[in-house]
Every structure is written in C-alpha cells, then in structure tokens.
C-alpha cells in the first residue's frame, strides 16, 4: 500500500500516526486520547484546527482512517531502517532536539532527559540544517572553482613552458650551428694553409733531392772512370793522367752539409701559436655582445627578436592613433641595485619613444627621453 506522505496520516496534536482516530463534525480527525487531553485544557469543546465547536462530547471512531493507519504502521515497520527508529523506545524518530542536536521520538520528547528542550519536526529540522550546511559549502565551492581555475592556469603555463623550451632549444641549436659552421670553416681554412705550406716545402725538398741525385750520378761516373784509369798500365796511365786530373777537378765537392734554414720546416709556431685565442678573436667578428637583454616573460603587446635585443609592436598603429597611445612595453632581463650604467638605444625612424627606469617592475615608471644615449646612476 502506498501513501502520499506520512503527514496525511498524522495527528495534528501529537504529530504521530493516528491511534484510535475520532472524527469531529467539521471532518477533522484526531487521536482519541489527544483530543481528550486537548479538551481538558480548554473551556469549550472546539476543534483544535478550525476552532469550530463540536456538537458531541464523544466523537465517533473513524474506522476507515484507523484501518488505513494500522496498515501504514505495519508497512512502515517493515520498511523503516533501524537508524530511523529510537533505540530506547522503539518508536519512529519524528522530532529533532535542537538542544541536543539529535533526532528523537515523541516519547523521548516527554521524557525527563529532554525536559525544557526545544524540538522541531524532522522534516523542518532537516531542511533547516540542509540549508545551513549548503551555505557552509559556498566557501568550499568558491575554493574549488578557484582551484580549478588555478589548475587551468597551471596547465596553460605548463604548455607555455613546453613552447618556450622547444623555441629556446631551436634557437640554441641554431646559434651553435652557426658556431659549429664557423669552427668548421676556420678549421678548413687553417688546414688548407697548412697543406699548402707542406706541399710547397715538400716540393722544394724534392727539387733539392733531384739535384743531389744528379750530382751523385756525376761523381759516381767520375770516380769509376778515374779508378779504371788507375788500374791501367803505366804508359796508358801516364798518357791519360792529365785528362783524369782535369776530370776530377771539374767535379765540385760539397763544401758543407745542406742546411734547412728557418723556412725549411713547417712553421708550427705560426699554425699553433695562440691558436684558440686567434680563433676566438676571429669569432668575435661573428658574435656581438649586448649589455641589456630584453625579458620575453615581461612583455606587453610587442614581439621580441630572436636574439632578445629588439622588438616590434604586434599591431600597426592606425592613422587616428597617436604614438603616445601605444602601450607596448618590455623590461630588461637584468636588474641593478647600484652603480652607473649606460646604454645606446637604437630607436629607428620613431620620432616619439620612451626609455626609462623603475624601482618596481610592476610599476610603469617610464622616463621619457629626447636623446638616444643615456647614462643612469642607481643609488
């Protein structure tokens, strides 16, 4: 058997399911004992709900309602969880003690333990406490939303970190590629000079060795002919003696051993002396030092160059806009606490520009200048 709600079967006096319900002439029903107790406290026999006077002091029993209530109680006892039943009186928990902040039954309400306590029906108390608890959740929900927003921001920052990583890695590799290319070309240039010197001096030695070989051959021939003349009979020897002496005298003798001289060997001092310094000196023509590097993490409406030394505005100014309307800005990556510092700033064709110093990076305390070169002292 299904019922719309328990309130339809509850006595408006005791707030419990009807027990021996009686019906008045006004059609309102009450528990028999509850009505008698009510009438004992009142001078007239009136209805507790509509205040209409009852024509009978002993109202008739509402049998249909009693049977319905008994069926409902039986069904409720079968379905009511143990937690909704009073452990002391085995009655259904219908009230909420505001003093003790706990559900109680009707018997508990009349007991000495809850004397002078305040009560509310379970439904009302539950709704009030639900509203109160729901209000207490508002700060938590705000914090939850804030945490979700922070998580979203952190995800975006993590993505930016990834993008910055790949972008920076590409630029680092590009710069090192330039340096590698320079070193490769520098190595090839120096190796080419070394090979040319080696080939030149080796060829010179080959020429000298060929000349010596020719002299060896001539000397060997003169010695052979002279020795053969020495073995000839005396008459033949004497007849050929003068010619043999002239032949020996015509052969020049090497006065001293050949000297290589300072330019004979590879000039290692030229190729190896201060090698790395000379390479570094040549490399300085390729690289350029900039004392002030712009910070890509603190830019507004501008696009930085790859070397972080210059920038351009994201959008071109319209004809109606004044140059002063440009709010693009960028900070340097290095901060100074003291000392004197000077820079040369290239402003291009811009007639109006700003360059300055601020004590707080969050403040745009720009100083407008009218010259390119500036010297600043920080105290």
Most strands sheet: 3 strands, antiparallel
Average pLDDT, to the nearest integer? 81
Strand residues, percent: 5-15%
- Helix proportion range: 40-55%
User: What is the spatial order of strands in the main beta sheet?
Assistant: 4-3-5
Report low-confidence residues grouped into runs of 5 or more: 363-379
- Gyration radius, to the nearest Å? 58 Å
Q: With helices defined by DSSP (H or I, 4 residues minimum), what is the helix count? A: 7
SS elements, strand count = 11
Secondary structural class: alpha+beta
Distance between the termini: 90 Å
The structural domain count equals: 3
Written overview of the protein:
Mean pLDDT is 81; it is low at 363-379. Strands 4-3-5 form a three-stranded antiparallel β-sheet. Strands 1-2 form a two-stranded antiparallel sheet. The chain has seven helices and eleven strands. By secondary structure, the chain is of the alpha+beta class. The radius of gyration is 58 Å and the shape is rod-shaped. The protein folds into three domains: 1-79, Herpes Virus-1 (2-Layer Sandwich), CATH 3.30.40; 129-253 and 262-283, no CATH class; 294-378, no CATH class.
């Amino acid at each position: 058997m299904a019922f719309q709600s328990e309130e339809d079967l509850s006595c408006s006096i005791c707030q419990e399911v009807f027990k021996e319900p009686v019906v008045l002439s006004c059609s309102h029903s009450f528990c028999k004992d509850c009505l008698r107790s009510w009438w004992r406290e009142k001078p007239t026999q009136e209805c507790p709900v509509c205040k209409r006077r009852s024509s009978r002091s002993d109202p008739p029993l509402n049998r249909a309602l009693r049977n319905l209530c008994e069926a409902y109680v039986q069904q409720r006892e079968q379905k009511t969880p143990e937690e909704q039943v009073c452990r002391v009186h085995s009655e259904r928990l219908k009230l909420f003690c505001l003093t003790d902040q706990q559900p109680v039954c009707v018997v508990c309400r009349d007991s000495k333990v809850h004397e002078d306590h305040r009560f509310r029906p379970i439904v009302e108390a539950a709704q009030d406490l639900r509203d109160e608890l729901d209000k207490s959740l508002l700060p938590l929900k705000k914090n939850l939303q804030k945490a979700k927003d922070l998580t979203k921001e952190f995800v975006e920052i993590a993505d930016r970190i990834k993008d910055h990583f790949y972008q920076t890695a590409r630029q680092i590799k590009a710069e090192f590629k330039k340096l590698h290319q320079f070193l490769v070309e520098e190595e090839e240039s120096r190796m080419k000079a070394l090979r040319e010197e080696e080939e030149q001096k080796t060829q010179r030695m080959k020429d000298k060795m060929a000349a010596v070989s020719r002299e060896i051959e001539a000397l060997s021939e003169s010695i052979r002919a002279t020795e053969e003349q020495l073995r000839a009979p005396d008459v033949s020897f004497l007849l050929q003696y003068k010619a043999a002496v002239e032949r020996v005298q015509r052969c020049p003798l090497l006065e001293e051993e050949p000297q290589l001289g300072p330019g004979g060997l590879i000039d290692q001092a030229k190729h190896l002396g201060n090698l790395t310094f000379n390479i570094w000196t040549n490399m300085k023509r390729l690289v350029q030092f900039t004392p002030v590097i712009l910070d890509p993490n603190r830019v507004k409406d501008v696009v930085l160059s790859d070397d972080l030394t210059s920038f351009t505005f994201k959008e071109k100014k319209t004809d109606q806009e004044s140059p002063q309307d440009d709010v693009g800005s960028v900070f340097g990556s290095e901060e100074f606490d003291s000392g004197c510092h000077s820079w040369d700033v290239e402003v291009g064709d811009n007639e109006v520009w700003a360059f300055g110093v601020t004590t707080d990076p969050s403040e745009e305390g720009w100083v407008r200048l009218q010259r390119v070169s500036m010297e600043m002292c920080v105290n």
